[in-house]
Amino acid sequence: MDILWQYQFRIILLGDSTVGKSSLLKRFTDGIYSDVADPTVGVDFYARSLEIEPGVKIKLQLWDTAGQERFRSITTSYYRNSVGGLLVFDLTNRKTFDHVKEWHREVSEHVLPHHMVYILIGHKSDLNKDRKVTREEAEDLAAVLGVRYVETSAKCNSNVDRAFELLTKDIYELMKMGEIDTREGWDGVKSGLSAKVLYPAEEEAEREKSCNC
Amino acid sequence: MLNFLKVLGVGKNQDATDLLTEDLALVEQRVEPAKKAAQVIYKKLACCLQSQQGLDADKRTKKLPLMMLSVSMAESFKDFDVDSPIRRVLEMCCCMETLLAKTLAEFEVQLEKEVLEPLNKLSEEDLPEILKNKKLFAKLTTDWHAARNKAQASTGQAQTKQDGLREEVEEAWRKLENIKDQYSADLYHFSSKEDSYANYFIRLLELQAEYHKNSLDCLEKNITELKENHNQSAPRLSGPSGKVYGAPLLSHLQHSGRQIATPIQECVTMLLQRSLKEEGLFRLAAAASVVRSLKGSLDSGNIDHSEFSSDPHAVAGALKSYLRELPEPLMTFELYNDWFKAAGEKEVSDKLEQLKVVLGKLPPENYNNLRYLVQFLSCLSEHQDVNRMSPSNIAIVLGPNLLWPRTEGVDSLLDMASASSVQVVSVIEPLIQHANSLFPEAVDFEIPEPPAGVDPTETKFHRCRIGNQGGRTIFPFCTQPFVIEGKI
């Protein structure tokens, strides 16, 4: 079991069904791609670690949901307990791009007063000839939402790692700046217990947590 | 254990559920009831099955009680000769029971696939998996508490010992975090699936509805056919063609190529010949045997007028019986309420107006036969001084044979008792009384001879507008009192 990580970030994948959330995730965590994919049923999560800078390992806990499903009572805690989100759309499907704004709004409203770190993903870049959304449009949307934009392909393994790395780095930087912090009862960011922690203040908090005295 | 720790007053103690977010804690409480529900409903639903689970539809069909019934019917009808009506009906019943058995077997296969199996998977696999993690979560929470308390109690002991205990706490916490994430995912999953779990029960109802509908369709279709065949076969001994009494009006007309149903036309013709002045026509009963014999003749199409003209009450009885045996009354089920509504109008002019509207709604075949009959009855009532059959009297005795409600359910039985027999008079009487204006068409029955002994005083009140020319009546719109001239 990999316990040599300083932080764990919980990240969710958002977007309509069939945009390729699960494929993206599989490529990133298992390094594989399959042309035939069953629709995701319910909720599941996967993990992979990234060394974000020498000696700093981040464990990403990646949560995948079926895009067509909306939870009822539990949306809030599902969204709230994440620190980052990939807003995924299908470059060959205009509708999924149009819906990105709705996904962004829905999640942002639920996590208030906190904020989530997003990255916009234009997926299936291998199907360039069927593209229905131009890079410029997507970049414009990213600018409006104040997020990064990356075009990926799980099939060709293009930019997949980069997309996750960029999001992870953004979160990490915000943590260093103190914008994001571990909170009691929040699963978005957790400190690793076995490795020495970066910041003394953090360690103090950690000791307090495990003692609870 | 947890309670024990709480009793010890260890600050900020949390049991497993406290570590979950509030909304997940709520979802958590639904898992156990869901498992129980799936379990018990699976069991009870399986008890409802008549066929053995796990078999294909064919094999199930064979073992159904309905199939046993069908087989017994098959075995029973073999002992009859081919012409026996019992045999013919049993043959049909045998097929229908088989069909019903098949429908049932198919329903049960589907029910098993779409409801029983998912319920079983839910209660035996999916939910126990979640509950297993719940247990593990609770256990690891306890372990963590225990480790933490031990570490707390170690204050003042050797530093190495304290550090070791600290590590144990951290290890316990890490394990706890892992299972917490897994368990949370389970609960999120469960929550996202609740709707589809609920759908199993909707599916159950849908399948039941479909099954009952299929069975009903199969029954209704075949019963009509069976009845027609059966009614047709009954008088077969007396004649070859059959299918008049008890057959739907339309099918009889189509079958025989007639405009007016055989019994109506033949009986009216016979009655016109010499019975218009018969006292109590349609009211007095005739010998059942003569009526039966006449019905047989009418069914077979070989009617000897001279044989029956002498017995007007038998002829009237056969006509009445034809009307009553129609699967649907001549004035139709559909317009049942319309008739009463129209007849309920206070003003005569409104009443006639409304009756005309309803008449206009009748299918052309029904309209034509009703017109024919009422025009005859109107003619008959012209002789009420002699035959004592006023429109009201005719309506009383014939009304219930012209209009009755659908005999389904308790309500209509009440209807039958009250409305149909008494109130129907209010509908039929004006029809006869105002036949002239309600039925502007020419009377198209032949009057073979003028009613004997028509004297001028009588004809003054004669409202029949019957003229006869070459066997067809004319002057359809004549409003003057008119003497029946008979055949010229």
TrEMBL record, chain A:
InterPro entries: P-loop_NTPase, Rab39, Rab_GTPases_membrane_traffic, Small_GTP-bd, Small_GTPase. GO terms for cellular component: autolysosome membrane; cytoplasmic vesicle membrane; plasma membrane. GO terms for molecular function: GTP binding; GTPase activity. Keywords: Autophagy, Cell membrane, Cytoplasmic vesicle, GTP-binding, Lipoprotein, Membrane, Methylation, Nucleotide-binding, Prenylation. It is found in: Autolysosome membrane; Cell membrane; Cytoplasmic vesicle membrane. Its main location: membrane. It is a lipid-anchor. Gene3D superfamilies: P-loop containing nucleotide triphosphate hydrolases (3.40.50.300). It comes from the Eukaryota. GO terms for biological process: autophagy; Rab protein signal transduction. Pfam families: Ras (PF00071). Transmembrane segments: none annotated. PANTHER family: DRAB11-RELATED (PTHR47979). Belongs to the small GTPase superfamily. Rab family. NCBIfam families: small_GTP. This is Ras-related protein Rab-39B.
UniProtKB/TrEMBL annotation, chain B:
Keywords: Coiled coil, Cytoplasm, GTPase activation, Phosphoprotein. Its main location: cytoplasm. Residues 166-229 form a coiled coil. One of its GO terms (molecular function) is GTPase activator activity. GO terms for cellular component: cytosol. SUPFAM superfamilies: BAR/IMD domain-like, GTPase activation domain, GAP. Residues 247-439 form the Rho-GAP domain. PROSITE patterns: BAR, RHOGAP. Residues 9-235 form the BAR domain. One of its GO terms (biological process) is regulation of Rac protein signal transduction. It is found in: Cytoplasm, Cytosol. InterPro entries: AH/BAR_dom_sf (IPR027267), BAR_dom (IPR004148), RHG17/44/SH3BP1-like (IPR047165), Rho_GTPase_activation_prot (IPR008936), RhoGAP_dom (IPR000198). Transmembrane segments: none annotated. PANTHER family: 3BP-1 RELATED RHOGAP, BARGIN-RELATED. This is SH3-domain binding protein 1. It comes from Albula goreensis.
